[in-house]
Each structure stands twice: as structure tokens, then as C-alpha cells.
Specification:
mainly alpha
Length: 544
């Protein structure tokens, strides 16, 4: 066994969590000490080294995928930039009447390069992540057709974070193609942008223009950045360890044996899974943002209090924001901006009006977005259904919007009233819970079975101490979860009103500030789900 394999076996799984002892008390402190000690000119190289060491620790020899992706991105960017430079040079020397034809030739070359790059990167992701799924379904089709032929089902290894850094790679190449950014002539700067260790496991999915220069201009660690960053890491740790990890055994018990429980228990399981997923993912994002902030890097937010949303569409503008904007910019807009779609919109607008007309082409683009969204999360039919479920919900919401407005006006109901807005939030949360039920189910058929039990057997029979014991949770756990959720709700409500808690705390005297910090630390230490009887839970979105 080589050193990489040994390290991967011993600490790789722990290193995927930013709240593990190995990461928090070994890897991160060493990075910070070395980063602070070296001259400014060397800091970016320390960040780059730390990022590749981190990726090597969690993925071992599979780091080759990241290295090849960095090289590919660098070369494709240079290729496109060279074509664009040559085009500008040729156009400057060409007669005016011939420029249009010449420009079209160069645009075709750029499109061919872009298409090649996208097929290469997305194709590799599809091969690694979905070849087994496609093979299994093809074999099922052959079985239905009574064909004796059966193709082998490949089992390919893929590194953690490939879904995230692949999308970053495609965004970089596409932005160079559109002229939004200049191709970087430094492969090391691209490597740091692609591999920055806090974000590579779960995102956020950054654009080159958002973080590349910040990372490369690596600044000294400032006191404010250090304290603010540590505060956010602690807040994320509270979400993850106190709530998400405490709920994990119960959720596993319900979804692993769905036929054991009545519909009411299954519904509670779906609600708690939705809470767990949010606390796990947003808590991890708090850690990512906090670590980046310590290094002086401001990353795009991935969550903006999604459970205050009044519609499913708004919810997905607040949840996993960087993935949503990636799909909007690189799938939705390109589909709707094609000549055929523009013609379709123009024709539909004349027949259906200014609201419903654009929904035709928009609906097609939205379908593409949510099909890709479902597939991005996993290679199974329940993920595809999850995507298409939200496509239907969002499209239906857009379609009934004018009717709702007319209804409110007719009955004299003010949609801005607090009571109605609360109703909208609860309704939206219920729609989301149903989607997460299918998302968590072990297969689409199981998902429909679970939903069927909720609809036909909605009962809490058997909900007693014996059942809670079987679900490895008790009343004290629910009290701890409830108190922590109230804290998160209070902070979220203040943030929704534009109040920054960290700024408020920073204005207090030093004694009160440290009392708050120590109280949060002790709360996590006392009530966190860890130690004997708890199995460490890897970040949930690292699996997607």
C-alpha cells in the first residue's frame, strides 16, 4: 500500500467533513500557520499546495481527474483566445464588405472548440457518473423485449467534487468564448481557481470572475476576517452537528424500512430529512464561506433563507443558488436565445398573449434545466422525477399567476397580508417536502410507495417511546433540535430583515462578545451528535 492509499484509508473520509477533528485541528491550523508565516508573494502557492494536498487526501490517485481538467481548461482557454486574437487581427486588415463573412468563419471555429470542450468535460462526467445507470436501464429494456443479450454494467471510480469542478470548468471555457473574461495565461491561477480546498467538496460553484483574482492576490490574514470566519464556521457546525447529524439515525431507520411505519411517521421522516438536508448543506456552506473569509476571499452565497419563500420558484432561487444560476446562464438562456426559440416565442406571443406566449419557449428551456438538475444530483430515476416534479410545480405556478391575481382582486384579498404570506411559505415548504421524499427514497418505486402510504394511511399509530427507541432518538433529542432550530430561525429572520448578526456582535464590548462565542462553543460541545454511539456523517452534498 502506497502513502496516498494509506492516508486516504486512514483520514480521507474524515477530511471530507469540515467539522471533523482531523480537518479542524490538524489540516486547517497547519494551513493557516504556514500561510501567515510566508511572504505575501508565496501565499497563493501555499493555497494551491494546500488545495491539492487536501484533494489528494480525500481522493488519492483520483486527483489525476482534477489535474487533467485543469490542463484541459487552460489549453481550451488559450485555444479560444488565440482564435479571437487572430480574428481581431484579420478583421483589422480586411475590407469592410468582407468582414462579416470572415467573422462568421472565426465564430464557427470558436463554436467547434467550445462544443468539443463541453462534450469532453460533460462527457467524462456522464461516463463516470451515469454509465452504470444507462447500462442497467438498457439491460432492463432488453429483458422486457425478451432479448438474451446483456451488456456489462461498469463500476467506475470518480473523485469527490467532480460534479462541482466540472461545472466550473465549463463555465470558464464558455465565458472565454463569449468574451466575458480573458483566457488566463497562468495555469497555476486556473489550478487554484478550480481546486480551492474549502469549495471543492460541495461548492459553491464559482465563476472565474468571482474568485480567481481574489485567490491569486492572496492577502494577509486580518483580525476581522479571522473572527468573522471562525464565527461562521461555528454557526455552521451547530447546524451540522447539533441538528443534521442528530437526525441522521432516525431518518435512516425510516427510509431503510419504509414498510414498517404508518404514513404519518413517513411524513415526519420526509419533513425531518428536508430539515437535515438544509442544515447539513447550509451548515457546510457556512464553513466554506468562513474558511474562505479567513483567507480574505468572498465567495458567492449558496443560500438565502429558502424557507421564507412564497413559491417553489422563489425557493429554488434561494437554495443552492450557484447551481441554479449556472443552469440559468448556461442552459436556460442559451436554449431560449436560439433563433428557433425566438421565432416560437414571437409566434406564441401573438396567439397566447404577452404572459403565456413566452412560457412556451420558456417551458421547453425550463424542462431542460430541471431534467439536468435531477440528473446532476444522481443517477437514478427518483432524481430525474425530483427534477421534473419541480419543473411541473414552477411551470404551473407561472401559468396560474394571472388567474391568481384576478381571483385576489375579485374577492378583495390582499396577497401582501402577513397571514397569506405565512400560508404561502407553509404551502411552499410542503411542496418541497414532497419533492425531498422522492429525492431521499431508494428508487422511484419506493418513493411512490412512501407517498402512497402518506396519502392512504396517514396515521401516527405506534408513535411512542418504543418507536422512538427503535428510531434511536428520544424526547431530549427533539428538545435539543427544537431549541437549535429556534436559534437558526431567529438568526434567519433577522438576516431576512437586513440585520447582520456578526456586525451587531462586533459592536458589543469584548467581554460580551467572548461570552457569546464561548456559549456557542459549549452548546456545540454539550449537545453536538458525536462520540460513542454516533457514526460520523459525511457532508450530504459531497455524494452528488
Amino acid at each position: 500500500m502506497d502513502l496516498a492509499s494509506l492516508l486516504l484509508a486512514e483520514s480521507g473520509s474524515e477530511m471530507t467533513s469540515f467539522f471533523s477533528l482531523t480537518f479542524l485541528f490538524v489540516f486547517l491550523p497547519v494551513c493557516l500557520i504556514v500561510y501567515a508565516a510566508v511572504p505575501k508573494a508565496a501565499k497563493k502557492y501555499i493555497l494551491l499546495l494546500a488545495s491539492f494536498v487536501f484533494f489528494w487526501l480525500v481522493s488519492g490517485v483520483l486527483i489525476i481527474y482534477l489535474i487533467l481538467t485543469v490542463i484541459s481548461v487552460f489549453l481550451f482557454g488559450k485555444w479560444l483566445d488565440n482564435i479571437q486574437t487572430k480574428m481581431r487581427s484579420e478583421l483589422a486588415k480586411t475590407e469592410k464588405e468582407k468582414r462579416k463573412a470572415l467573422k462568421q468563419q472565426y465564430v464557427k471555429k470558436q463554436r467547434a472548440v467550445l462544443l468539443f470542450a463541453v462534450i469532453l468535460h460533460i462527457g467524462l462526467l456522464l461516463a463516470l457518473k451515469y454509465s452504470g445507470f444507462f447500462a442497467e436501464n438498457f439491460n432492463s429494456l432488453l429483458w422486457i423485449l425478451n432479448t438474451p443479450l446483456k451488456i456489462p454494467v461498469p463500476k467506475l471510480m470518480m473523485p469527490i467534487g467532480i460534479s462541482f469542478f466540472t461545472l466550473q470548468a465549463v463555465s470558464y471555457i464558455t465565458d472565454v468564448y463569449h468574451g466575458l473574461i480573458k483566457a488566463d495565461r497562468s495555469i497555476l491561477r486556473i489550478a487554484l481557481f478550480m481546486s480551492f480546498f474549502p469549495q471543492i467538496v460541495e461548492g459553491p460553484i464559482c465563476r472565474y470572475s468571482q474568485t480567481a483574482d481574489q485567490l491569486w492576490n492572496a492577502e494577509q490574514i486580518k483580525y476581522k476576517n479571522l473572527t468573522y470566519g471562525l464565527q461562521r464556521i461555528l454557526y455552521g457546525m451547530m447546524k451540522k452537528i447539533v441538528i443534521a447529524d442528530r437526525l441522521d439515525p432516525m431518518i435512516k431507520a425510516i427510509f431503510d424500512e419504509p414498510n414498517t411505519y404508518h404514513g404519518g411517521i413517513i411524513f415526519l421522516g420526509a419533513v425531518f430529512y428536508t430539515v437535515q438536508l438544509y442544515m447539513d448543506f447550509s451548515g457546510s456552506m457556512d464553513a466554506v464561506m468562513g474558511i474562505a473569509e479567513i483567507f480574505g476571499v468572498k465567495m458567492p452565497e449558496n443560500f438565502q433563507r429558502p424557507f421564507f419563500s412564497k413559491s417553489v420558484s422563489e425557493f429554488w432561487k434561494r437554495w443552492h443558488i450557484t447551481l441554479g444560476t449556472w443552469f440559468k446562464d448556461y442552459i436556460f438562456y442559451p436554449v431560449t436565445s436560439t433563433k428557433k426559440m425566438k421565432n416560437l416565442t414571437s409566434s406564441a406571443r401573438k396567439k397566447l398573449g404577452n404572459h403565456y406566449g413566452p412560457l412556451v419557449a420558456g417551458g421547453i428551456a425550463l424542462f431542460c434545466v430541471w431534467l439536468c438538475n435531477g440528473l446532476w444530483h444522481g443517477s437514478d430515476w427518483n432524481y430525474i422525477f425530483f427534477g421534473l416534479y419541480h419543473f411541473v410545480m414552477i411551470l404551473a405556478g407561472n401559468m396560474i399567476a394571472p388567474l391568481s391575481g384576478k381571483f385576489f382582486k375579485k374577492v378583495g384579498l390582499d396577497p401582501n397580508k402577513t397571514v397569506y404570506r405565512v400560508f404561502q411559505m407553509i404551502r411552499t415548504a410542503l411542496f418541497v417536502v414532497v419533492g425531498e421524499l422522492f429525492f431521499r427514497a431508494k428508487g422511484l418505486d419506493v418513493g411512490f410507495g412512501l407517498f402512497g402510504r402518506i396519502v392512504t394511511d396517514y396515521s401516527f399509530d405506534g408513535l411512542n417511546n418504543e418507536l422512538l427507541k427503535k428510531l434511536t432518538i428520544d424526547v431530549q433529542d427533539f428538545i435539543i433540535i427544537g431549541i437549535t432550530l429556534l436559534i437558526v430561525f431567529a438568526v434567519s429572520l433577522l438576516n431576512e430583515k437586513g440585520v447582520c448578526i456578526r456586525d451587531v456582535i462586533a459592536k458589543k464590548n469584548i467581554a460580551l462578545r467572548w461570552c457569546i462565542f464561548y456559549a456557542l462553543i459549549m452548546f456545540i460541545v454539550i449537545f453536538g451528535a458525536y462520540g460513542f454511539g454516533y457514526i460520523p456523517v459525511d457532508p450530504m452534498y459531497a455524494n452528488f
